[in-house]
Write a structure and sequence with these properties.
The protein is of the alpha+beta class and 310 residues long. It has 2 domains: 79 residues, Carboxypeptidase-like, regulatory domain (Immunoglobulin-like, Sandwich); 193 residues, no CATH class. The protein has 6 helices and 18 strands. A 9-stranded antiparallel beta sheet has the order 9-8-18-17-16-15-14-13-12, with helices on one face. A hairpin with a 4-residue loop joins strand 17 and strand 18.
Length: 310
């Protein structure tokens, strides 16, 4: 009798993945699970790996000839073609490769390691380009989400938008859903203020450990990891156990063309998100041109294309 009870308990304690689902287990080259990574099916449906690095995708949206794209901060994107054989596999391990950067064109002039603070100071003029959010005249939004029945949905809309200081307010908007509206505001503010200035301002950079990742043909690449002792600072307003990572590229002028964020908040999981932003130099102002953000809690993916006025 005791064995039967133990058996039943074991069955109910195991993760449940339907037989009609395709299960992927995303790992690094050392077989460590990569948690809360982004998984795109046909560049249309969006999913997030869970705390064990697994993701379950309904077989009905995985058609032969389509592709699955897996992205994770600091790793090369992996694109997997969907074949008949792939659809029959119950549990597939997907291994990602760390990104590498060419260091061939760097000249070392001293015995000391790369001085990130000195580098940032030398690029200060462009790093601190002012951001004028009132110049935004329109934003095109594409939203992927899973409805209450577990079915993937896509919302496309155009809107007129206006931001005032830190508090975002809509001037006109075709999206009535208050959750989606608030997410759009939040991610626009993250892209335009929080992310760039965490890298630009010296007082904020001190809260992170800065790792120099190397240089491509046109950019220097850095990764910022929040130091545990600084998570609870007033600037971050987090809790011990929160994980905040930022990867930033800086070009030859000192301009920031791209930023990636991976933010896992242990005590506020509804605010956890992944984000990628592309910036443009608009009349000597640093402005987000494209934002792709995902709320990890409800797996809602939001893409924003921004246009600017005079």
């Amino acid at each position: 009798m005791n064995r039967l009870v133990i058996f039943i308990l074991l069955i109910f304690s195991m993760p449940i993945y339907g037989k009609d689902n395709i299960v992927l287990h995303v790992k690094d080259e050392c077989s460590h699970s990569l948690t809360y990574g982004d998984v795109f099916v046909k560049n249309e449906w969006h999913f997030i790996t869970d705390s064990t690095g697994k993701v379950s995708i309904k077989e009905q949206i995985c058609h032969v000839g389509d592709t699955i794209k897996i992205t994770y901060l600091g790793y090369e994107d992996r694109i997997i073609p969907i074949t008949e054989k792939f659809r029959t596999l119950a549990d597939t391990v997907i291994q990602l490769t760390p990104k590498s950067y060419s260091l061939n064109d760097i000249t070392i002039k001293s015995k000391h390691k790369f001085n990130a603070e000195k580098f940032f100071k030398s690029k200060k003029r462009f790093l601190l380009l002012p951001y004028d959010d009132k110049r935004i005249v329109s934003v095109y939004a594409k939203v992927n989400y899973i409805d209450e029945k577990g079915k993937p949905k896509v919302l496309c809309d155009s809107m007129q938008i206006l931001f005032e200081s830190i508090k975002g307010t809509f001037l006109k908007c075709g999206i009535q859903d208050t959750v989606i509206r608030s997410r759009i505001i939040r991610y626009m503010l993250y892209a335009s203020n929080s992310a760039p200035y965490a890298c630009c301002l010296k007082r904020l950079r001190k809260l992170f450990k800065i790792n120099y990742w190397g240089k491509t043909d046109s950019t220097w690449n850095f990764r910022f990891d929040i130091l545990p002792e600084n998570v609870s600072s007033t600037s971050i307003n987090g809790h011990l156990g929160d994980d905040i990572q930022i990867v930033v590229a800086i070009d030859k002028k000192g301009f920031i063309p791209t930023i990636q964020l991976h933010t896992i908040l242990k005590f506020n999981p509804s605010r956890s998100y992944n984000m990628f932003a592309i910036y443009d130099d608009y009349k000597n102002e640093m402005v987000p041109e494209y934002v792709n953000a995902t709320s990890i809690a409800d797996k809602m993916n939001i893409e924003l294309w921004c246009k600017y006025g005079k």
